[in-house]
Amino acid sequence: MRGCLFVLVLASLVAAFVVVVGLPAAAAGALTAGVAAAGLKAADTTVTVSSDPPTDLIGLHADRVRVRATHATFRGLEIGALDVTLQGVAIVDRTARSVDGRLPDVVVPNVGARPLTLGSIALSGGGDAVVATTTIPAGEAVALIADGLEAKLGIRPTSVVLASPDRLTVRLGVAVSGRLAVTATGDLVVRVLDGPAAGDEIVLLRGGEDLPVRLTSVTVTGAGDLRLAGELAIGLLG
Fold first, then answer.
1. DSSP code of residue 173
2. Phi and psi of 152, rounded to 5°?
3. How far apart are CA 159 and CA 153, in angstroms?
4. The predicted structure's pLDDT at residue 58
5. CB-based contacts of 96, cutoff 8 Å, min separation 6
6. Which terminus in the chain has less CB density within 10 A, N or C?
7. What's the CA gap between 2 and 195, in Å, rounded?
8. Is the pTM of the predicted complex or chain greater than 0.90?
9. What is the pLDDT of residue 9?
10. How far apart are CA 211 and CA 43, in angstroms?
């Protein structure tokens, strides 16, 4: 009888260990493979999975998943660090009810003739749409616009002045005005309003290509920065 009781207790302890330790570890392994398939590469990716009660993981649902990495790349972006928390994760479907995180020190290596540096990209939302927001500093924005105009028109502006909410004036021998906009396909463009190139539309960033984001809006801030928002063009979990 004592032997049977010992076996039952041992079996219960093993089952509890599997639920509390084994299931989160297995789920973390599956999700680590998922974020790698989505395009995240880093030497130290850490995925932490938790659920209350842990038995929810048997149904392949997690209350909370946290993904951290440093010196990472994601779909062409170079990222100093990554810290993203997902709530209400369906592990098989690779979906999350909500997403909250930040990617600091981001570099887009090749936009036109030079890399583009972003202070950070913030992630929010969840479900069918993960929203990404970022700001291009004024100096970077001026260089981006000058590069785009030069590539399209063959003339580099001698000055670029940005004004809220979406206006710019450039000097191409004469002053030429334009408007920043986002196309239906998620590209950031300049629409030339007057001068010899009036009516031209010049692509500055290709949504989903230069950035893994389909842009939905652009705003010039009072400081002359460009504030961009859009939706991730690929799922975070693969």
1. S
2. -85, -45
3. 15
4. 64
5. 65, 86, 87, 88, 89, 90, 126, 127, 236, 237
6. N
7. 95
8. no
9. 32
10. 22
DSSP letters, 95-157, are EEEEEEEEEEEEEEEEETTEEEEEEEEEEEEETTEEEEEEEE-HHHHHHHHHHHHHHHHS---
DSSP strand E in the chain: where?
40-41, 46-50, 61-74, 77-90, 95-111, 114-126, 129-136, 159-163, 167-172, 174-182, 188-192, 201-205, 213-220, 226-232
Specify the pLDDT at position 15: 32
Q: What is the token pair recorded at 184? A: 């239906």
Give the 3-state secondary structure of residue 23: helix
pLDDT along the chain (238 residues), means of 10: 36 33 62 80 86 66 89 89 90 85 90 85 87 95 94 92 96 93 96 91 91 94 96 76
Two structure tokens written together for 234: 């690929």
Closest to 44 in 3D by CA, of 81, 89, 84: 81
Instruction: Kindly list the distances between the CA atom of residue 61 and the CA atoms of 26, 130, 237, in Å, as whole numbers in the listed order.
Output: 12, 19, 14
Q: Are 186 and 208 in contact (CB under 8 A)?
A: yes
Nearest to 67 by CA among 20, 99, 107: 99
Beta bridge partners of 170: 160, 176
In terms of C-beta density within 10 A (0-12 exposed, 13-18 middle, 19 or more buried), how is residue 223 classed?
A: exposed
Long-range contact pairs involving 50-56 (C-beta distance under 8 Å, separation at least 24):
50/24, 51/24, 54/19, 54/20, 54/23, 54/24, 55/19, 55/23
Q: What order of strands is seen across the sheet that includes strand 174-182?
A: 159-163, 167-172, 174-182, 188-192, 201-205
How many angstroms separate the CA atoms of 167 and 197, rounded? Answer: 16
- The CB-side HSE value for 83 (13 A sphere, CA atoms) comes to 6
